[in-house]
C-alpha cells in the first residue's frame, strides 16, 4: 500500500518550488485574487491536480510564496565592514541603502514589489495568517540590523546605544521609500532620501 507524500517535506523533483515560483509570477501580474490553483498550474505548465497534491489549498500556497520572498530578502543582505573598505559611516550607510534598493529595482518588476505589499495586506486581513506579516517585518528589522550593525559603534552615543530602535527606523524608512517609489516614482528620489538620512545619522551629536 502506498502512502501520501508529506507536503511539508523538501521535494526531490522541485515541483513544490516550481509551483511557488509560478504563483509568485501570477501574483506579480494580476494580484492575489488572480492566484487560483488553476491559474498557477497553467503558469507552471502542470495539471491542476498537482497543485492540490503539493498544497492543501490556496492559503498554504500563498504562505509559501511569502516565505520564499522573505528568504530572498534575507539572502540579499550583505553587510560591509567600513574598517575593511576605508569608508566613513556616512558612506557605508548610504552604500548599504543604495545596494538594498538596487535589489528592489534590479529587474524593473514593479508588479513583484506590489505583490509583496499585497501579500502583507492579505496576511493582515486574516487572523490565521497575521503572523506572516509579523514575520515579514521582523525579517526586515533583522536585515537592517545586519546591514547597519558594522557602523553602529562608530556613530554618536544616542544612536549607538539604541541599536533596536535604529533597526526599526532603518527598516521603516526603507519600506516607506519603496512604497512611495512604487506609487509615485517621479516624485520620489530614493538617492536623495538615503543621502540625507545617512548624513543626519552620521552627524548626530553626542548625548549631553
In the predicted model, the low-confidence regions spanning at least 5 consecutive residues are: 1-5
**Cα-atom radius of gyration:** 20 Å
State the share of residues found in helices, binned by percent: over 70%
Count the beta strands. Answer: 0
Looking at how many chains there are and whether they match, the oligomeric state comes to: single chain
Helix count, DSSP H or I runs of 4 or more residues? 11
Encode the helix/strand succession as letters: HHHHHHHHHHH
What is the residue-averaged pLDDT?
83
As for the number of domains, it is 2
Structural class: mainly alpha
Report, as a whole number of angstroms, the end-to-end distance. 75 Å
**Which percent band covers the strand fraction?**
under 5%
Largest sheet: none
Shape: elongated
Q: Helix and strand layout, with pairings?
A:
Blueprint: H1 15-30, H2 37-44, H3 48-54, H4 58-76, H5 82-85, H6 89-105, H7 110-124, H8 130-152, H9 157-160, H10 163-183, H11 190-202
Any overview of this molecule?
The chain has 208 residues and is mostly helical. It folds into two domains: 9-58, Homeodomain-like (Arc Repressor Mutant, subunit A), CATH 1.10.10; 77-202, no CATH class. It contains eleven helices and no strands. The chain has helices at 15-30, 37-44, 48-54, 58-76, 82-85, 89-105, 110-124, 130-152, 157-160, 163-183, 190-202. The N and C termini lie far apart (75 Å). The model is unreliable at 1-5 (pLDDT under 50).
Amino acid at each position: 500500500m502506498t502512502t501520501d507524500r508529506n507536503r511539508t517535506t523538501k521535494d526531490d523533483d522541485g515541483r513544490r518550488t516550481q509551483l511557488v515560483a509560478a504563483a509568485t509570477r501570477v501574483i506579480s501580474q494580476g494580484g492575489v485574487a488572480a492566484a487560483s490553483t488553476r491559474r498557477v498550474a497553467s503558469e507552471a505548465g502542470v495539471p491542476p491536480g498537482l497543485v492540490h497534491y503539493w498544497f492543501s489549498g490556496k492559503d498554504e500556497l500563498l504562505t509559501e510564496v511569502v516565505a520564499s520572498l522573505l528568504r530572498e530578502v534575507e539572502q540579499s543582505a550583505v553587510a560591509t565592514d567600513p574598517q575593511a573598505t576605508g569608508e566613513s559611516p556616512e558612506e557605508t550607510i548610504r552604500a548599504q541603502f543604495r545596494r538594498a534598493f538596487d535589489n528592489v529595482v534590479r529587474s524593473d518588476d514593479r508588479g513583484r514589489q506590489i505583490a509583496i505589499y499585497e501579500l502583507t495586506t492579505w496576511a493582515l486581513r486574516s487572523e490565521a495568517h497575521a503572523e506572516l506579516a509579523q514575520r515579514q517585518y521582523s525579517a526586515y528589522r533583522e536585515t537592517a540590523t545586519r546591514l547597519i550593525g558594522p557602523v553602529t559603534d562608530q556613530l554618536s552615543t544616542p544612536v549607538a546605544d539604541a541599536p533596536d530602535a535604529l533597526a526599526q527606523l532603518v527598516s521603516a524608512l526603507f519600506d516607506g521609500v519603496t512604497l512611495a517609489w512604487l506609487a509615485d516614482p517621479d516624485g520620489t528620489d530614493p538617492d536623495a532620501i538615503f543621502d540625507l538620512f545617512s548624513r543626519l545619522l552620521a552627524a548626530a551629536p553626542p548625548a549631553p
